[in-house]
Amino acid sequence: MKTLKHYSIFILFLSFISCNVSPKPIEYGSDGCHFCKMTIVDKVHAAEFVTKKGKAYKFDATECMVNYLDEFDTSEIELYLTNYFSKPETFTDATKATYLISKKIPSPMGAFLTAFKNRSEAEKIQTEKGGELYSWTELLDHLKN
Fold this sequence. Notes:
By secondary structure, this protein is α+β, with helices and mostly antiparallel strands. The protein has one domain. Helices cover 30% and strands 24% of the residues. The protein has a four-stranded antiparallel beta sheet. It has a three-stranded antiparallel beta sheet with strand order 6-5-7. The longest helix is centred in the N-terminal third of the chain and has 17 residues, at 2-18.
């Protein structure tokens, strides 16, 4: 009986830690993009989504993540994350970020798409580099056309 109790506690513990819904670090230079299969090296443009079960899907660029959504049941996604311009390697909520498409800021897949944590930072860079600003929903519409 004691062994059964220990086994039950162990199973409960495993199920708790295996369903941890949180960002997973990207191993730059070794992790591959789920969409295009390129190795993720760019620390400004990488992205990730995490399912409700805690599985992370990593991408070398936000546009790869958006394109992969066509192949995935988005109702299973808990977190949409993107790296952003002023703090490379740091995630922000992709659904709240502001995006700039500017030919003066190259991105890994050639969409010239860069995320910013907030609109004011994006507007500042836009005055220097030009381009168009997008919210998450506007970006989804833009990339689907």
